[in-house]
Structure formats: structure tokens, C-alpha cells
Amino acid sequence: MMLTGKPAFAAMKNIKNKTARVATPVADRLAGKTRLSPADREAQIIEGAIAYFSEAGFSGQTRELSKRLGITQPLLYRYFSNKQALIDRVYQTVFQGRWNPQWIVLLKDRSSPLRDRLMEFYRQYSEATYRPDWIRIYMHAGLSMPALNQRYIRLIRRELMPVYCRELRHHCGLHDVEDSVSDDEIEFVWSLHGGIFYYAVRQHVYRTRSGVDFMTKVGFAVDNFLAGAETTYPRLLATVSSTVNLPAQKSKGSRSR
After folding, report:
1. What is the pLDDT of residues 17-57, one digit of tens each?
2. Does 79 fall in a domain?
3. Which of 4, 9, 127, 225 has the most CB atoms around it within 10 Å of its CB?
4. Is residue 218 part of a domain?
């Protein structure tokens, strides 16, 4: 039966609309629905790259990343000239971007006992860094791109560890000085920092469960460390005093807790 009048017009319009939808490339339609400003698009790519590299490691391909983001690979390369440029931005975002200089101010504030300062530091530090993406990207980088880890370790060694050492000297009743922190001291205090980092590795890499919450475990680690340091750290300093040239230990009565 031949349709005439309004029914025929409606049927023809329906066929035309369906044909237009089929003819329109899928990517064009997706782009129309997800049109973003350049800044938002760049942020989307970085966020997606962080999630992707935390799963696949840095051997993951930008082609697959583009598919996950729902964009073309050429569009991705409009924002990042090559894969290494994207990886560098991921590093800056995940590691440098989450470093807070106020942590150093906190650790130096001797109006509070060192234990309290360390506990608050690790509360803030863990919230900023000990996340699944941070931990997993850090571990992947250690296997395939250790230069990224080395950059972050240099940051920790330069900014955090000397402060740790000087505050521990003060806690143990030693005259603290603003220079001459030895490698031995840095390795000594790094045992605490590395041990707490391993809690996060167990959770986010090995996916092991623990009935003890994170900050309770940090409290155990800090208490054990400080108790041992009161005996061991002065002895360590005595062995390196010829090269470090530290002043003598204060009397126990003058210790600042």
C-alpha cells in the first residue's frame, strides 16, 4: 500500500534521519557529546593516563589509552608531543604535584613533641601519596623507568631526610646543627620512612588485608623507632663525629620531648 500525505512525509523523514545517523562517523558524534575546552581535555588525558599507567605500567601503549579516553591518538598527540612527554607530566602530577612544603614546616615546629609531629606528618603524607595510583605507578617506574623514582628519591633525600636527622638529634638530647648531616644518619632515619611506605605497598600492590588501621601501624612504627633511636642514634653519631664534627650530647635532663 502506498502512503500519501502526512504519513508518507513522516516515513520519509524518519528514513532520512536514520540514514544521517549511520553516515555520521561515531567519533564525530562522540566528540560532539564530549566537547571540552583545551584545559579540560588536557586534564582528562592526564587523569586517564595516571589510571592507565597505574594498571598497565609504562609499557602501556598510547593507542590503548586513547581508546579508553574515547579520543583519537592524533588528538592525544596534539597535547603531548610523544609518550615520554606524557609520562613526564604524569610524574609531575603524581609525585611533584602532591609534595607539600608545609610538611617540612610541620616537622620543624618544636612546640610539639617529635612523636606528634611525625604522626601528623604521616597522616598528611599518606593521604596525599599512599593512594593506589601513586604506589602502583611508583612500583612500575622502579621496574621500567627508574629515573622517575630516582628523581623522587632525590627530593626526599634533599628536603625531608636532613630535617628528620636534625629533629632526631634534638629529640635525643644532642645539639643539632644546620649542616653536616651524614649518610649514616640519613640511612638510619630512612628505615622508618621505608617501613611505613611498605605498609602501603602491602595494601595497594600485594592487596593484603590487615585488621589494624594504617595510623595505628604508623604509631607502632614511630614509637619503636624513637625508643630505639634514644639509645642507638647517639652511638651512631659518635662513630661519625670525626667527619660530622657534632657538638657533645646534652644531659638527659635537658632533653626536649
Report:
1. 544 443 344 344 444 455 899 999 999 999 999 999 999 99
2. yes
3. 225
4. yes
Which cell is 137 given? 605507578
DSSP category for residue 206? S
pTM of the complete model beyond 0.90: no
Asked if the model's pLDDT at residue 58 lies above 90, the reply is: yes
State whether 157 and 173 are in the same domain.
yes
Distance of CA 218 to the CA centre of its chain: 18
Does a structural domain hold residue 15? no
Q: Are residues 104 and 226 in the same domain?
A: yes
| Contact predicate 167/80, CB 8 Å | no
Nearest-angstrom CA–CA distance, 188 and 231: 13
Distance (Å, whole) CA 189 – CA 183: 10
What gap in Å lies between CA 43 and CA 40, rounded to an integer? 5
Q: Which amino acid is at 249?
A: Q
Residues 103 and 230 in one domain: yes
pLDDT mean over 89-100: 94
Residue 223 structural domain: 98-241
CA nearest to 57, candidates 143, 167, 181? 143
- Reply yes or no on whether the pLDDT at 236 is more than 50: yes
Query: 36: left (phi > 0), else alpha (psi -120 to 50), else beta?
Result: beta
> Is residue 248 in a domain?
no
**Confidence (pLDDT) at 7:** 52
Contacts of 60 (CB under 8 A, 6+ apart): 52, 53
